[in-house]
Structure prediction request, 782 residues.
Amino acid sequence: MNNFDFYSPTYFVFGKDRENEAGKYVKMFGGSKVLIHYGGGSVVRSGLLDRVKASLNAENIAFVELGGVKPNPRSGLVYEGIDLCKREKVDFVLAVGGGSSIDSAKAIAAGVVYDGDFWDFYRGKRIEEALPVGTILTIAAAGSEGSPDSVITKEEGMFKRGASGDAIRPRFSILNPALTQTLPAFQSAAGITDIMAHLYERYLTNSEEVEVTDRMIEALLLTMKHEGPRVIADPNNYEARANIMWAGTMAHNNSCGVGRSQDWLSHTIEHELSALYDCAHGAGLAVTMPAVFKYELSHNVMRFAQVAVRVWGCQMDFAHPEVTALEGIEAFRNFLISIGMPKNFEELGAKEEDIPALVNVLCRGDGRDGNIYGFITLNEEDCTKIYKMMV
Amino acid sequence: MNNFDFYSPTYFVFGKDRENEAGKYVKMFGGSKVLIHYGGGSVVRSGLLDRVKASLNAENIAFVELGGVKPNPRSGLVYEGIDLCKREKVDFVLAVGGGSSIDSAKAIAAGVVYDGDFWDFYRGKRIEEALPVGTILTIAAAGSEGSPDSVITKEEGMFKRGASGDAIRPRFSILNPALTQTLPAFQSAAGITDIMAHLYERYLTNSEEVEVTDRMIEALLLTMKHEGPRVIADPNNYEARANIMWAGTMAHNNSCGVGRSQDWLSHTIEHELSALYDCAHGAGLAVTMPAVFKYELSHNVMRFAQVAVRVWGCQMDFAHPEVTALEGIEAFRNFLISIGMPKNFEELGAKEEDIPALVNVLCRGDGRDGNIYGFITLNEEDCTKIYKMMV
Prediction:
C-alpha cells in the first residue's frame, strides 16, 4: 500500500425531506449571501427550488440565482457565474442538481477568488482557494457531492478537462434519495454506470497488497449490481435509491481509493465522446469501459479474474484465468445493457468517421503529449483501436 | 435506511515515517502549546516520543508531557491532565499511543474547557466543546483515531463508560503501520478482535434495506479474516499491518454504520469485564461476542446466516438457516481462538462467582434502569445467562 493523505470533511445530511435544512447548513458554514446554481426544468417544476429558497429565507440568508447549467457543463456559464458573484458580493455557492450543477458551482467558487482565468485550474493548476460550496443532490452519479474534483467543457475547442483541490470540496451535501425518484430511467441508469465506473477506475491499480480497498470497492459494486436493477424496475423504490446514493458518495470520496494507483483511462477516453456528441457521461462510459477493459486485460489478468469471481459470481477457471477475466467484463457489459445503456457507437450517437478527430483531441489536445496515462499507457494507435472496438 | 448525518473531518496521514510530520499538522490545526499524552514503555523505548518532540521543535511548538496512561484508562490521570493543561495554558492535545491514550486525551481536551466535572460527559452529557486533539496511532484496534467517542473508567466504583461529541474527533491522525510491528502477538490479536467487534456491532441491526452498509461491513470483515492471521504469523508484515490499520479506521469512523440501528451489547457487557479484571478489551470481546451472538441468534436468524455465508464461507443450509447462522458464529469463535484470543472466563482471568456483581454493575450501575439496550433488550436474568455461557 502506498502512503496517502485522506481528508473528507464534507458534512453529509442524508434522508427524506432534508433539503428543508439547507438554510441551517449554509449558516453553519458561514454563508450570508448565496448563489443558488442549478440547471432548470425539474428542479423548478418539482418545487425543490422553492423549498430551498424558503429554507434560506427562514434563516435570513440573501441569495441570487443562476440557472441554465447543461449536462457536460460549459465554461461560458462559469464566467457568467463568476461575474455575478463578484457583482453581488456572494460568499457561498449552493448547487442544486447533479454533478453538472455541482461541478459548475465549484468552478465558479474557485474563479471568484482567483485573479486569472479560471480555466488555468482545468489545465493543471491546483485549486488552493475558493468560496465555500454546498450541494443539494438530485442524482446519484458523479460523486461530486463528496469530491474535490470538477469537470468542465471549454467551448473554444470543446476540451473537457478536470480540476481539483480541497478548497472546492463541498462543506455540506444534502442527499435526499426521494429527490432522485423522478429521474427518467435512462438518467438513473447513466448514474448507476458512472458510479460503477468510479469503482472500476480505482479497482484497476498497479499497487499491490491493497486488500482493504479492493474489498471495499467490491462491496460497493455488489451493492450497485443488486440495487441498480431494482431502481430501473421501480423508480419509486426509496430504499434502493438510498443504497445507491450512499454507494455513489462512498465510491468517489476516495475512502476506497486511498493508497493505490488508479486508472481513469475510461473517463479520459469517454470525455471526448460527451464533449463532441453531448451524450450522457454515464452512457459514454457504458460503451467505453468494456472496450478499455478488454484492451487492458492482458496487463493483469488476475485482477480482472478477481472482480469477475467476487462481484459477477463467475466460476474461476483455474487453468485459464483469462477466460474468467473476460467473462467478468462480458457480465458487466450485459449488466449495463440490461439497465438500458447503449452498447456501441451507433446507440450512443457517435460516428466511426470521427475517430481520427477524437483521437487527436484526446492525445494531443490542450497540451497533451501524445499519450494518455492510467492502468497502462496508451498512444494514439492504442486509442484508435479502442474507439474502433466500440463501433 | 434511516435518515442520518455523517461528518468525518479528521485529516488522515497514512504511511511510513509520517510521524515526523506531527509538528506540521499540529501547526495546521492551530496548536501552539501542546500536551503530549501517552502510556509509556514502548513509545519511549522505541524512540517514537523523541521523534515526535523533534518534529514539534522543528515547528517551534512548545509542549508539556503527561505519560502513564494505562489500558482501560482511568479518571485519575484525566483529572491530572486537565489540571496540567489549565496550568500550562495548553491549546492542543496530542495523543501518542493506542485507543487508551487517545480516549484519555479526548477526556482531557473536553475537561479543560468545561466548568463542571468531566465525568458528566461519561454520564450522558454531549461534548460540545474541547481543545483540538491530534493522534499518532501505535495500535490498530479502537478506531478512536477517527471517532467522536471516548471510554474512561471511573476509579470510584470502577464504572467504565463512554462519552461522545464531534468536538473530540481528532483533527488529524497519523497512521504509520510500521509503528504497530513491535506489538506483542497478543496485543495485535486483541486489536484485530476489537476491530471485528466494531464491525459486528454495526452489522447487527434492526434496520432494513441497508445493503450498502452491510456490504461495506462484510468487506472489512473479509479483510480482517485474511490479514489478521498474516500479522500473527509475521509481525513485520507491513502490508498486512497497513490493510488492518485502514480497516480499523474505516470500521469505526461510522461510514459503514450510517442509516442503521446498531447493537453494542457485546461492548457494554465486556466493559464490566475489563473494568473489573483489567483484561485487554479485545480479549474480553473475544469471550463475550460468541455468547452474546448465540443469545441474539433467534432474534434474526437470517442476519447471522448472511454473515456466515458472505464472510465465513459457510454453505447456506436453506432448509435450516439456523444451522448456518450458528456455524458462522462458531467459525468466528474459532478464528479468534486461532489468533490467540481466550475462549472462556478461565482463560480471560474472570471468575464465575463474580457474575452477580458483574450483572449488578452492568444493569444497575451509575444510573442504569435494570436493562441494557441494543439489537435486543437484555435484563439482569439475560445478562446472568450470557456471562454463564462464557464460563
Chain A has 16 helices and ten strands.
